[in-house]
Amino acid sequence: MCSSLCVSPLKGNSIKTYKYNVLTFIPLNLFEQLRRVANLYFLALLILQIIPDISTLPWYTTLIPLVVVLGVTAIKDLVDDLARHRMDKEINNRKCEVLLDGRFQESKWRDIEVGDVVRLKKNDFIPSFCVCFYFLCRETNLKFKMGLRVTDERLQEERQLAEFDALIECEEPNNRLDKFTGMMQWQSERYPLELDNMLLRGCKIRNTEECHGLVVFAGADTKIMRNGGKTRFKRTKIDELMNYMVYTIFVLLILVSAGLAIGHTFWYEEIGSNAWYLFDGKGQNASYRGFLSFWGYIIVLNTMVPISLYVSVEVIRLGQSKFINWDLQMYFAEKDTPAKARTTTLNEQLGQIEYIFSDKTGTLTQNVMQFKKCTIAGRTYGTDYLYYGLDNHFSVFPLQPVDWSWNQLADKRFEFMDHSLVACIRSRKDKDVTEFFKLLSLCHTVMVEHNDGDLVYQAASPDEGALVTAARNFGFVFLSRTQDTITIREMDQEMTYEMLALLDFNSDRKRMTIILKFPDGRIRLYCKGADTVIYERLAPNSRHKETTQTALDIFANATLRTLCLCYKDISADEYEAWSRKHKDAQLAMYDRDIALDRVYEEIECNLLLIGATAIEDKLQDGVPETIATLAKADIKIWVLTGDKKGTVSPFSPTGKCLSSEIVCYFHVSSENLRIRQANRRNELPTTRRGKKKPAEPFFPQPGKNALIITGGWLVGSIDFVDMACECEAVICCRVTPKQKANVVSLVKKYKKAVTLSIGDGANDVNMIKTADIGVGISGQEGMQAVMSSDYAFAQFRYLERLLLVHGRWSYIRMCKFLRFFFFKNFAFTLVHFWYSFFSGYSSQVAYEDWFITLYNLCYSSLPVLLVGLLDQDVNDKLSLKFPKLYLPGQQGTLFNYRNFFISLFHGIFVSLIIFFIPYGAFLQTMGQDGEAPSDYQSFAVVTASSLVFIVNLQISLDTSYWTFVNCFAVLGSIAIYFGIMFDIHSAGIHVLFPSAFTFTGAASNALRQPYLWLTIILTVGISLLPVICIQFLHKTIWPSVGDKVQRNRKKYEMEMQEEEKKKPPAFQRGRRSRRSAYAFSHSRGYADLISSGQSIRRRPPTRGGPQDSIREVPQREAENI
């Protein structure tokens, strides 16, 4: 039927995202796990333990922990892969109608092939990458899709579809979702294929009852599957630090083992070789015995490198991610959207954020647009107040909304206050006003549905929907469209216009153009776009440029989003000549976009300005308070937006946290940066007392500044970053998606800071992926940002709780877990080291073999694991009330090399106590039965019992938040130890396995001696007493912020309860306050963002006119008047 010319072979439509099958799961999963250095290390140890001359421990002491670790990870991988298997099976078995043997038959997705014709109905998912045949359809994310006119006209019946024999020539399969280049050759004619003609796999058909498509790419070749590759793996700072510490432990292990092996060599030469009772008949010299001793100590001391560390960390992170998912205070009921942790590897990094990079529209604002003002032919419409007065004494009255009862098709939810514009429209005397709203009703890609007699608009962007709705209410109602016509109602008359060309909007063009043929034969071009690109293309004789520019500045300062509108009449000959060039550019197979842009530029020139629109985007609830709280936590927020600088110049993003002393810089010359760079290169490395001379600051008051710049001004140097980081607030305007990612990269590169990016649209994906942590807002612009993010939720205000509560808790828990994990392993392992001095450095162990096997699995794992999951120093409310509690995470003070060596020396101290106090107690001791208890097995029982008590009581001292589960874990671990110990020391199990269980009766014999219980109590007491004293001194003499909050917790909780009772009613957005040009909002009442109620820069009082008076009068006062 058809073919697609590609170099690579074509694939079927079946997809495979799973990794394993029944045969490959065990070998492939083992291979993947053994690629980790820690697992490979313990496998090597297991092999060493099989060698009789080296092995000092039974093989099962390493095998059992290794099997448990590998098994837990394998089960987790298996569960994940089974979910992928189920998803693949569900998708591959979906049903679709395919044209087979001249008629449409139901078929499964997996059986579809390239060249098949499929029939899709409303709300069907698209099975593959297809060419759209019928004139119009739309996907779930409301992207406009359009079939070729020739296929729409000639392929209406099954017979015609069965006889379709076109040749499709297109690009090779790729992951570019925003671009497609192809050509269809049919009946000696060539037709261009673009992305607008294509249907993407996985999308859903909307707004059309039925359409047909030709499969071009199937299965793994489709664009959505090509985008399903592995994303960049993100690692936390603690991950990197933890790996370096494991390497440090490994080096220490080698050094200690080498030292003990040398000791054994000398000991054997001096003592061992001369002791007849040590003769083993092997004939090995001292050096060889030292070599074997080295490998023996590698085995004995292997627990210094913790085998269960990584799997324990994964379990903790998984639990912390579930807590984020289950947090009802981050659930947005309005859209039934919970918070979602889409990764389990970055939770503790949320507690270390230093810089937040935020999009504006849809992230900080609601992305719900409302038409507020406009300027037409030099006159501005859209005031909210009526004012009059004499001698500068004005009375202000709020206007009532316009009554739309005269317009049967008006949207009753639309509000507009300026009655003069409605009167002008209804009089039909002003041609510019008529042309203005006619342009709004025609120049767009909005779709319309008729729902019970009502018009429902579905727009690709909220801005477009707001503009078409405004035109609808003012009497120019968009009714319907086909592939080449648009029908509107102009007041009471229905008109249909032929659409000759549609030059769509994109982020590079920043404008949209439509060329229409009027019913009377005239050809007119309508264009709307950003003022920066429109003014470059205006005709020299275009009127109202200055007055419109003044109005645009006023709109921008009022934080409104603006678009310029213009038109141009075209002669038939001019259009025919341009149309031929346009068609040639559309058929270009290489550099099609460049060719089209060149053709677009030819027609989009000498335009005549009509006016401009101003749209308000409302601020999300809680944004000012969230920004203020995060700023108090010393988190710097940068706003990266595509909007013009005028909309953000008066105010900085950090709102309430800035005082009136903050100075805002708008036009810092980039020449300053070049001078600074030259000076730095020419500077000699001046040093003073060994320290480098600090660079001269850019601003007179570092930290008291706000910087507002445009994307074209960005400079990729350390000087730019230094200058920006001197400011408390930075706003980058007119930035492209690539520039957003570059700004994040600069801060990461030069400041070595932990960064977070948050956005809601496809243009934020690069920024989200570049940052250490990416957060997606599930808003009005689709799910691209969410799908690329690490964490997702519905409102910006939830970021406060994500960082200050979940992030801080996760960081504290992980740090406490790691510190204690290293300590308990050092305390456990180094007892062997002290024992070596009394055993001839012979690689003998101080404990029973089964205790070594089960120590990390059963006796000490659960309490520390629960601390990593549940511990909290203060509750969530106090975490939000005191943002300064977040600072230790930014500074990395809770886990670093200093903490690591403290844990090391603490472990050394405890191991000394555990070994030498029982050792001293056992010397020349007589038991109550007249027998000496000073045998090796009793000594091993006492040291092991002391260790279990110490580590479980130590974690109890470090636990800040006690629950029943914690108590059960601590007491249960001790009970499990004694239960297992008495079992494996029993005579019954020795009879069954005499070689594996050799400590027969050791526990019962040792622990019936009161003297040994006193030894255990003394050992535990001396080990814990210094810790108790140090903790007491720290909390009383050198308390941290967290200690102070904990000490006064009850008082603060009572204060918060009182504040809740006194809290005024919820904020009403209708209340009027002084208007600001808040950097990234388009709603009223932004003076709430500044705690002082003043703008950033102090201004001398001026004698205002009527408009200034209007802005200063709150609505409530006006109502009282």
TrEMBL record:
Task: Write down the InterPro entries for this protein, in alphabetical order.
Answer: ATPase_P-typ_cyto_dom_N, ATPase_P-typ_P_site, ATPase_P-typ_TM_dom_sf, ATPase_P-typ_transduc_dom_A_sf, HAD-like_sf, HAD_sf, P-type_ATPase_IV, P-type_ATPase_N
Chain residues that bind Mg(2+): D359, T361, D760, D764
Enzyme class, top EC level, equals translocase
Q: Reaction catalysed?
A: ATP + H2O + phospholipidSide 1 = ADP + phosphate + phospholipidSide 2; a 1,2-diacyl-sn-glycero-3-phospho-L-serine(out) + ATP + H2O = a 1,2-diacyl-sn-glycero-3-phospho-L-serine(in) + ADP + phosphate + H(+); a 1,2-diacyl-sn-glycero-3-phosphocholine(out) + ATP + H2O = a 1,2-diacyl-sn-glycero-3-phosphocholine(in) + ADP + phosphate + H(+)
What transmembrane ranges does the database entry give? 57-79, 244-268, 288-313, 817-838, 850-870, 900-924, 936-955, 967-991, 1011-1033
Question: What's the source species' lineage?
Answer: Eukaryota, Metazoa, Chordata, Craniata, Vertebrata
Q: What is this protein called?
A: Phospholipid-transporting ATPase
Species in which this protein is naturally found: Dicentrarchus labrax
Question: Which residues are the active-site ones?
Answer: D359 (4-aspartylphosphate intermediate)
List, in alphabetical order, the Gene Ontology terms for molecular function in this entry.
ATP binding; ATP hydrolysis activity; flippase activity; magnesium ion binding; phospholipid transporter activity
Q: How does it sit in the membrane?
A: Multi-pass membrane protein
Q: What cofactors are annotated for this protein?
A: Mg(2+)
Q: Which EC number(s) are documented for this chain? A: 7.6.2.1
One GO BP on record is: Golgi organization
UniProt keyword list: ATP-binding, Cell membrane, Cell projection, Endoplasmic reticulum, Golgi apparatus, Magnesium, Membrane, Metal-binding, Nucleotide-binding, Translocase, Transmembrane, Transmembrane helix
Region Disordered: start-end pairs: 1052-1121
Q: Name one GO cellular component term.
A: apical plasma membrane
Q: How does it assemble?
A: Component of a P4-ATPase flippase complex which consists of a catalytic alpha subunit ATP8B1 and an accessory beta subunit TMEM30A. The flippase ATP8B1:TMEM30A complex can form an intermediate phosphoenzyme in vitro. Also interacts with beta subunit TMEM30B.
Q: Which SUPFAM superfamilies match?
A: Calcium ATPase, transduction domain A, Calcium ATPase, transmembrane domain M, HAD-like, Metal cation-transporting ATPase, ATP-binding domain N
Q: Where, by residue number, does ATP bind?
A: D359, K360, T361, E464, F505, K528, R561, T641, G642, D643, R734, K740, N763, D764
> Family, per the entry?
Belongs to the cation transport ATPase (P-type) (TC 3.A.3) family. Type IV subfamily.
Give the location in the cell. Apical cell membrane; Cell membrane; Cell projection; Endoplasmic reticulum
Q: Which residues form the P-type ATPase N-terminal domain?
A: 12-63
Pfam families hit by this protein: Cation_ATPase, PhoLip_ATPase_C, PhoLip_ATPase_N
Under PROSITE patterns, the record lists: ATPASE_E1_E2
* Occurrences of domain P-type ATPase C-terminal (ranges): 786-1040
Basic and acidic residues: which segments have biased composition?
Answer: 1052-1063, 1109-1121
